[in-house]
Design a protein that fits this description.
heterodimer; A: alpha/beta; D-Maltodextrin-Binding Protein, domain 2; eleven-stranded mixed beta sheet; 11 strands; B: mainly alpha; MetI-like fold; 2 domains
Chain lengths: 343, 474
Amino acid sequence: MKHFLSFLVVVFAGLFLALFIKSSRDPSKETKPVLRVFASSSFIAQWGPGPWLRTQFEQTCDCRVEFFDGADSTILMQRLKSEARVGADIVLGFDQYDLEMAKAGINWKTISVQNLEFEDDAKPAMSSAEFVPFDFGVMSFVFRKSELPQFPKTLDDFLKPEWKGQIAMQDPRTSSPGLQFLLWLIQVRGEDGAWEYLKKFNPQVKAYSTSWSMAYGLFTKGQAATVFSYTTSPVYHKVEEKNLDVVAVELNEGHPLQFEFMGIPANCQNCELAQKFADLVLSKDGQKVIMEKNYMFPVIKGVKDGTIFAEIPPYKLRPYESVPSQAERERLLRKWSALRRME
Amino acid sequence: MTISRGIFLLAVLTLALPYLLLARQIGGIGLPETDELLWALKNSLYQGVLSSLIALIAAFTLMPGLWWAGPRLKGVLSWALLLPSLLPPLFVLLSFLAWVDPFPVGLIGVVFVQGFMNAGLAAVLLSRSIEDKLQGLSEMAAVMGAPRFLFLRRSFRLIVWDLAAVGIAIFAFCFASFSIPLVIGGGRATNLEVLIYEKVRISTQMGEALGIGLVQLAIMALVLLIPSRPARLEAARAERLHLVASRWGLGAAAVYVMIFWLPLLKTLPESFRAIGQIEGLWSQIGELALPSVALALGAGLLCLLFLLVFSIGYPQNPIVRLVRGWLAPSTALLGFAFIGWGDASPLITYASVLALLFFLPVFRLGLDRRLESLEPQIQIARTLGANDFLIWHRVVRPQIWGIACVLAGVVSLWAFGEFALGRVMLSQNLNWALLSESLMSSYRIEAGLGVGFLILISGSLLFTFFWRLGHVGR
C-alpha cells in the first residue's frame, strides 16, 4: 500500500496547490470595480500594449483592469455568448469580417469618439457607431531584399516560374490575412478572374497555413521567399533585430486594408469605465503604444509623426469597400476549398 | 451489476461526456458535402496507412541497434528513440524544417514527419515483442549456424500479429493526428481531424464538426475491431538477440536521435537570447512556472487515476472493443464542449480536460494489452473465489502500477506542451505552452522556442518523477 499512499499524498498536494493558486486570484474578494477587457493574446501579452494600458488606466480609475484572452474572433464570440461566462466590459480585436457575426449575436453600445481626428485612411472604417477601429494595417508581400534581384510589380509577377513553391500564404478559412488576400483578388479581378488567377497561383504557394504566425514562421525560417503580411512587418525586424533586409513590396493593383475594432457590449457591468478605457486606447499615448507594440498603424492623426512608422512610404491603397456578408463569404470559401481539393 | 462493472460504466460515461455536452449545445448533428468528407477521409487513411508503414520499416533498421546494446545503454537508447513521439510535435517539425529545405509541404510532408516521429516508438514496442517471441529460437538458430536472412525469413510469421498490433496502434495515432497535418498539410492534406477544426473555426458549424467526429470514431472502432492475439506477459530478458543484433543498427539509432536533437540544440542560445531581449518576459516565465507544473502534474495524476479506475472493471467482453475503438475526442470539439468551464477554477478544470483528451491514446499505447494479458490470472483468481476488488488489489494493480505511472508521465509531458485546447478553453495565458504560442503568433518565434525548451526540460523532469513513482513499493 506504500505507493498507493504516496500517490494519494501527491494527488492531494497537487489539488491543494491548484486551489491555493485559484483562491489567491479570486475576483470575488475585490472591493474595487473590475473592468473586464477581452482582447487577443498578443494584445494582452507582456510584450503587447495591454500591460501599459492597464497601468495607465489603473492610476486614475480607482478600479482594477482584468484582461481575458479572446484568442480569435470565433472563440471570442462563443465565450461572450456562453451562459457560464461573466460578461465583458469591452472587447478589442475584431476585424472588419467579424463585425457582422458580432452584431448578430450580441447587442453593443455606441462608443463616443468626439473631438478625435482620425487618419484619412481609417475614416472609411468609421461607418458603425458601435465598433471603432483602434489600429490598422496595409497588406502586402514581404521579402528579404538580398534574395531578390527585382521586386514584383503586379500580382501576375508571382505567377512566374521562379516563384513556384516560394510563397507562404494563410488559409482564408482560418486566417484573416488569408481572407483578405482572397477578397482582394476578387476586388481586383472580379470573381471569375480571381478563381482563374488562383488556379495558376496555387502551385506557387509553399503552404496555406492556418494562421499568420505559421506562414510568417515559414518565411523567417527561410522555407519561403515571401509571405503575405503587413507593410509594417519590416519595422519589427528593423527595431527588434536591427535587420534592414526585410521589405514590403508595392504592387500596382493597390493594397487592401485590415482594421482592428473595439466594441462595448450592451450588457457591460462597468460601462462608464469601458468608455474611459476606449478613450485611453484612442488617446495619442495609447495609440503610440499600440503602434509600437502591435506593429500596426495608429488610427489617430499625428501619432506616427517623427517615428519609424512615418518612414514607411505611402502605398497605393484599394478603396475600403463594403464587406461581403457572412453567407457570401462562406460561399466563396466553399469554392476556394473545392479548388484546393482539385489540385 | 457488480461494483467493478458499475465503475467501468461510469468511466465509459465520462469518456462520452464531451459528446453529450456538444450534442446538448448544438442541438443537431450534420455532415459536410460528400466530396469534402470523402477527400478528408481519403487523406486520413493515406496518412494513417503510409505513416505506419514508414514507421514500421524504419523500426526494422533501429531494432538491431537496440538488441546490440547492453542493458544500461538499451534503457537510454529506448528513451531517446521514444522522445520524438512523446514531445509536442512542434519540436519534431522544427528539426525537419532545419534539415529538409525545401520541405515538402502537403501529404508527403505529413506522412514523412509522422512516420519519423513514430519510428522510434514502433522500434521499442516491436523489439520487446520480438525478444519475447524469438529469444530462444534465435539462440538455437545461432548454435545451428543458420544465416541471419534465413532466420528472419522463417521467423517472420511468428511476429506477424505483433507487427499488426503495433502498426494498428500507430495507424490510430496518425489517422486522428491534428497538429502535424494542420501545420505542414498546407491546406493540401486536410484530414478528418483538421476538417473538424475548420468547421468549428470558419462559421461555427458545430453540428457538422460533431458529425465528422462521429464518422471518425466509427471508422476507428471498425479498424480496432480487427482481432488480435493477446500478448503474453513474460519476464523481461536482458540478453541480446545475437543473430539479429547489429552495431549498424546502433548507428542507425544514433542518426535517428541526432536528426531530432542537433537542430534543436543549435537554436538553443539564440532562443534564450531572444527571451532576454523582451522586457519582463523572464518574470512572466517565473510567474507561470508553478501553474505550468501544477497543470501538467494534475493532468498526469488524474490520468493515472483514470487508468486505475478503468482497470478495476476492465471487462473481457464486447464492451472492451468499444473502448478500444473509442477515439479521444477532437481537440477543437473538446475545447468548445468545455468553453467557459475553465473560468471558475481554471487549473483544475483544464487539468481534467487534458486528462480526458490524453487518457485514451495512452490507454491503447500501453495498458490495453497488459490488461488483456492478465486475463488468465484473473480467471484463476475468480475460480478460487476471490472477489473483484481482491483480484484488482492483489493481481491487477501490482502488475499495472509501473506502466500506468509511465503512461501518466507521458500525459504530463503532453500536457506541458498542449496549447490548442487551452487557447479555446481558457481566457488567460495559464502556462508556458500558451505563452510560447502567444510569442510565436506575434513575430517572436525565437523567444517562443526558448519557452518551448523550458517545456521540454520540465516535462522530462516530470516524466522522470512519474517513472520513479512507478517503482515505489512495487
